[in-house]
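pasting for ref
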Amino acid sequence: MTEFRAFHNTDPPQLLKLWHTAGLGRGAAECLSNDAFEVLIFSQPYFDPEGLIVAEQDGEQVGFVLAGFGANEAGSALDFTKGVICAVIVHPDYRRQGIGRELVQRAEEYLKSKGATDIIAGPSGLRSPYLVGLYGGTRPSGFLLSDPLAAPFF
């Protein structure tokens, strides 16, 4: 049976292992390290552990979803009406069992509970709170149309 819970401080090594095992396709960041995960997600001042939901089976992490909020038009604060599901990761051996669907539903519930009225999948523009987020770096383009693994999101 799959159990779902919020992020714990001891999760990052397993989350990173899941990230690398998932085979996310051409548009996803690869070769992330524990340090990169820390900088790009967990050390952000607006990181909310409730927005990173972990799926476990028999004590093993089998998936997670990362949700957050976009910036306001000025880029000076979060706009809690603009939710974004930044990443959905499910271990390949556990796919097609409804885990990803449940993770997305729980992420949507989290975002709505904080005030989101508009939710998108995949960071883009002012909605890129994590993984090179609100404070600069690159601007994510969303999903690549040429990536067959992204097709379910269109």
